[in-house]
Amino acid sequence: MPRYALKVDYHGAGFAGWQRQKEHPSVQGAIEAALAKLEPGEHTIAAAGRTDAGVHGLAQVAHCDLVKDWDPFRLSEALNFHLKEQRVAIVDCAAVEDDFHARFSAVERRYLFRLIARRAPLTHDRGLAWHVKHHLDVDAMQAGADRLIGRHDFTTFRSSICQADSPVRTLDALRVEEHRRENEVEYRFHVRARSFLHNQVRSFVGTLERVGAGSWTPDDVTHALEARDRAACGPVCPPEGLYLAGVGYPNDPFKS
User: Fold this and answer.
1) For the packed helices 138-146 and 200-213, what is the interaxial angle rounded to 10 degrees?
2) In terms of Cα–Cα distance, which of 213, 94, 196 is closest to 152?
């Protein structure tokens, strides 16, 4: 059966997350339903990461197996036709070898978190960023972020319902950018690692926001990390500012 890699862009609002659920809409369910319109029957796709409810995808990667030998461009066009009522789009498609797996072949995942500081409520970015009313110290947040880079036990920064076998992970990068615009400042957190724990990125950003607001210091981030205690974590920020921004593979399936 031919295997295809799909690069998926989606707006997380209105979905119960990536993973298929019986009673709630999901991104996986929407794509599998579209595949069933092309080749009748049940379809199961696998993704690089299972994003939570409200989390967005800029370049999620999934793979599917089909019976017909599709031209990748025509497959993406056909899927997008059946997804046009959803906030999901296939932005790229490629034929891949049978041993390619969207999750297990991945060597890195990249996330973006958007936080916007302004007095007025968000309008155009509502549901697409975390809104706070106070400006933040970007240098202090970066100093706190630097304490998290490297291989650590991240028990403090993972959900109490995380199912990972080990809390030890290697964080390759956590970079904070400031973008000033009239009447507002946007802070972007760029996070990169091979794999992440449940709620790890949102726990990082919620903690670093406290540093930027002056309630925590960078040293407090170190103490929280070393505590290896979920209770030592700062607030977990809301999901709507989080985006799965990219997935890395030893051989990029989308490069011709």
Assistant:
1) 130
2) 196
Contact 4, 72 (CB under 8 A): yes
Q: Which two tokens stand for residue 143?
A: 């100093």
What 3-state DSSP class applies to 8?
strand
Span 81-92, mean pLDDT?
Answer: 97
The label of the residue with tokens 């103490």 reads: 223
Position 38 pLDDT exceeds 80? yes
CA–CA separation, 216 and 207 (whole Å): 8
Which long-range contacts (C-beta less than 8 Å, at least 24 apart) are formed by 181-186? 183/118, 183/119, 183/120, 184/116, 184/117, 184/118, 185/116, 185/117, 185/118, 185/135, 185/136, 186/114, 186/115, 186/116, 186/117, 186/129
Angle at 222 between CA 195 and CA 171, to 5 degrees: 15
Q: Measured between alpha carbons, how far is 250 from 228 in angstroms, rounded to an integer? A: 33
Structure tokens at 220: 């407090």
DSSP string spanning 189-228? Answer: EEEEES---TTHHHHHHHHHHHHHHTSS-HHHHHHHHHHT
- Nearest-Å Rg of the Cα atoms of the chain is 19
Q: Which residues are CB-neighbours of 27 under 8 A, at least 6 positions away?
A: 8, 10, 12, 15, 17, 18, 51, 57, 60, 88
Is the pLDDT at 174 greater than 80, yes or no? Answer: yes
pTM of the full structure: 0.95
The reply to whether 65 belongs to the active site is: no
Mean pLDDT of the chain: 97
Q: Which residues pair with 250 in a beta bridge?
A: none
End-to-end Cα spacing for the chain: 22
Distances (CA, A) of 129 to 16, 25, 61, 138, 202: 18, 22, 22, 17, 12
Q: Left, alpha or beta for 209 (phi > 0: left; psi -120 to 50: alpha)? A: alpha
